[in-house]
């Protein structure tokens, strides 16, 4: 069985791969993290977006419990950091078995 730190690193590695390829996931939540044959995968890229470097997204999209405040206040735009927020909420939920908000 994997410990929480290992799972966090695996989730972040998958997210980092997307970000290195200029892809925002924008809907990271437990229901979109899959385990198959012992391998964790980020799935459901239906609301993801390719975002060139230096460009900010402005669409309000995602699951409210896991979406960063920047997305809901997207007047100024947001970048891949919104996915890091969502991953943090997922990790919090793994630790406490409840969402923070």
Topology:
Elements lengths: L3 H17 L2 E2 L8 E4 L2 E4 L6 E2 L18 H4 L8 H16 L5
Explain this structure.
By secondary structure, the chain is an alpha+beta fold. It has one domain: Transferase(Phosphotransferase) domain 1 (Transferase(Phosphotransferase), domain 1, Orthogonal Bundle), CATH 1.10.510.10. Helix content is 37%, strand content 12%. The chain is built from 3 helices and 4 strands, in the order H-E-E-E-E-H-H. The protein has helices spanning 4-20, 69-72, 81-96; strands spanning 23-24, 33-36, 39-42, 49-50. The strands form 2 sheets. Strands 1-4 form a two-stranded antiparallel ribbon. A two-stranded antiparallel sheet has the order 2-3. Helix 1 (4-20) runs antiparallel to helix 3 (81-96). The protein is globular. The model has no long low-confidence stretch (mean pLDDT 93).
Using DSSP, what is the number of strands?
A: 4
Radius of gyration: 13 Å
Q: Give the strand order, joined by hyphens, for the main sheet.
A: 1-4
User: What class would the helix/strand composition place it in?
Assistant: alpha+beta
Helix content: 25-40%
Can you tell me the overall shape?
Answer: globular
Q: What is the CATH-assigned architecture?
A: Orthogonal Bundle
* Mean pLDDT figure: 93
Distance between the termini: 28 Å
CATH topology (level 3) name: Transferase(Phosphotransferase), domain 1
The CATH class name reads: Mainly Alpha
| CATH superfamily (homologous) name | Transferase(Phosphotransferase) domain 1
Low-confidence stretches: none
> What is the total domain count?
1
List the helices and strands in order. HEEEEHH
Counting DSSP H or I runs of 4 or more residues, the number of helices is 3
Main pleated sheet: 2 strands, antiparallel
Question: What fraction of the residues are assigned to beta strands by DSSP?
Answer: 5-15%
